[in-house]
């Protein structure tokens, strides 16, 4: 599988994007000696500390961002537990079986962008990053439309796999209400890869923290004060995720990303099939892990 992915990357880059590949090669050659010579344990620990600081500057905001985003679903599930056992089971099944299954596929379909944007950024072909982002949007959103029947027909599907009728009905209703969340996923996955390649982690961390705080507050208000129950939980989930999407899009479109975003382009539809094949290979690997979780539930 890995050999096939590498071949697809080369094919994709060779069709109009050869400068990216050439630039990447020269970049690698030029950065071989970025470490000072290591001739003693003291030199090793000095360089180790330098590299650790570089790593954590990027990793710490990324960890916080991921933790905050996953906490959004955890907060909803925790509040659902206060509504009752049926509601807790409904949210758990909808998030694990329906949303988890589709998110694994959508995340995989957007994973090709991580490699291609990294290559383009390293090679100095910043203009291609925006094109790759748009290609990924086209593919991942199309995938979202294909997967949307899983949300729409969640009730009969859950009954078919053996869930209790009352839990299947509640989970199916909740899944239908969180359908907009699916398309928030399909928008945000490519955006995250696009910004990560540029090391723009701090803004994503701030947005995720604000979204988590607002999500917690409005979940409490809608679910308990306004007594909207699972519908309130679903509405809050949708709004929270689309708040993240809207904030990141405003950040990109405002010019904060410089040359990496120069507007929408018809080039996004060029070499689309090669991009699809690379994305499918990634999706199969990531989906298999999500599928094990769905089956065990």
Structural description of this entry:
- InterPro entries: MATE_fam.
- Pfam families: MatE.
- The chain has 297 residues and is mostly helical.
- Helices cover 84% and strands 0% of the residues.
- It contains 13 helices and no strands.
- The radius of gyration is 21 Å and the shape is globular.
- The two termini are 28 Å apart.
**What's the overall geometry?**
globular
Structural class: mainly alpha
Low-confidence stretches: 18-32
- What percent of the residues sit in helical stretches (DSSP H or I)? over 70%
Structural domains: how many: 1
Overall residue-averaged pLDDT value: 84
Strand content: under 5%
Distance between the termini: 28 Å
Count of beta strands:
0
Order of helices and strands: HHHHHHHHHHHHH
Radius of gyration: 21 Å
Brief synopsis:
With 297 residues, the protein is an all-alpha fold.
């Amino acid at each position: 599988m890995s050999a096939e992915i590498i071949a697809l990357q080369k094919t994709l880059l060779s069709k109009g994007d050869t400068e990216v590949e050439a630039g990447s090669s020269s970049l690698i050659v030029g950065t071989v000696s970025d470490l000072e010579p290591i001739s003693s344990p003291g030199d090793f620990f000095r360089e180790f500390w330098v590299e650790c600081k570089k790593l954590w500057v990027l990793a710490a905001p990324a960890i916080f961002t991921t933790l905050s985003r996953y906490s959004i679903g955890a907060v909803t599930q925790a509040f659902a537990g206060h509504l009752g056992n049926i509601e807790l089971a409904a949210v758990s099944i909808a998030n694990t079986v329906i949303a988890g299954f589709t998110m694994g596929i959508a995340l995989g379909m957007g994973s090709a962008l991580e490699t291609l944007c990294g290559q383009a950024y390293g090679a100095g072909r910043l203009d291609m990053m925006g094109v790759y982002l748009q290609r990924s949007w086209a593919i991942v959103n199309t995938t979202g439309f294909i997967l949307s029947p899983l949300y729409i027909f969640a009730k009969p599907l859950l009954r078919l796999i053996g869930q209790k009728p009352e839990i299947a009905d509640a989970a199916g209703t909740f899944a239908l209400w969180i359908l907009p969340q699916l398309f928030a996923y399909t928008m945000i996955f490519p955006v995250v890869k696009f910004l990560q390649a540029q090391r723009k982690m701090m803004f994503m961390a701030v947005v995720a923290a604000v979204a988590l705080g607002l999500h917690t507050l409005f979940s409490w208000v809608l679910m308990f004060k306004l007594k909207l129950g699972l519908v309130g939980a679903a509405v809050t989930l949708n709004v929270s995720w689309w708040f993240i999407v809207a904030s990141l899009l405003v950040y990109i479109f405002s010019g904060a990303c410089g040359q990496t975003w120069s507007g929408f382009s018809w080039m996004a539809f060029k070499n689309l099939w090669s991009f699809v094949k690379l994305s499918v290979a990634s999706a199969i690997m990531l989906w298999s892990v999500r599928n094990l979780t769905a089956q065990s539930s």
